[in-house]
Amino acid sequence: MNAISAINNTASGVVTLASTQDWSVLKPMLFQSIAQTLEMVFVTLVLGGILGLVLGVVLYGTRPGNLFANATVYRVLDIIVNIVRPIPFIIFLAAMQPLTIKVIGTSIGTMAAIFPMVIMATFATSRLVEQNLVPVDPGVIEAARAMGASKFTIVRTVLIPEALGPLILAYAFLFISILDMSAMAGYIGGGGLGNFAIAYGYQKFDPSVTWTAVIIMIVLVQVVQAIANMFAKRILKRQQ
Where are the beta strands (DSSP E) in the chain? Predict the structure, then answer.
């Protein structure tokens, strides 16, 4: 790699190490890192989002007095979610390594990073879904029940549509969390912008590389949040 390192003396006399790198070499790696980040984030968002939606509906539905009320199931799921969610993702990655090797065949690479990300995202999503279903007006559900709608029909046509606006905003929040997870995935060779910033920015004393990765991630978050806000606003306005 073409790299130029220099020792600069500051005005205060403190010696600092600065490094500038050849961006014609870094650019292909930057684009590859962006592609790896997008792959990790969107696969996790889709799989973790769907599985989390199902688990969240089960959590909500099995609460006492709800559609599928079952105190035992709710309590067990509630405890499992409460155990998994607070685990720092970097520790979760290490703890999941034996299972990741059994399922994926390796603990290194983008696919090996996606597996624990999907599991963590599922539990995180489930709580977000449950919290956004709780405020749904029980009167709307009772009205659907009185009209003879089945429980699953109520979930599909009443419960989720009523909470759709807040759910979209919750999934935008989830996107940011998953982007954060993808940055940590660099520690297990998952690649992505996090790995790019650490390997070619932090470890080579080149802040321009680190900030390039940071700015790209900020832009990604801003774009997704703006799209989510737009759709949520339209849905909430339609429901008023």
Answer: 3-9, 15-21
Cβ atoms of 34 and 193 within 8 Å: the answer is yes
- Two structure tokens written together for 237: 């306005």
Separation between Cα atoms, residue 197 and residue 202, nearest integer Å: 6
Query: What does pTM read for this prediction?
Result: 0.85
In angstroms, the Cα distances linking 21 to 3, 16, 158, 217, 218 are: 5, 17, 56, 21, 23
Q: Tell me: the pLDDT tens digits for 57-70? A: 999 999 998 999 99
Per the listing, tokens 């680190």 go with: 210
95: tokens are: 């703890």
Q: In whole angstroms, what is the distance from residue 195 CA to residue 192 CA?
A: 6
Which pLDDT value is given to residue 45? Answer: 96
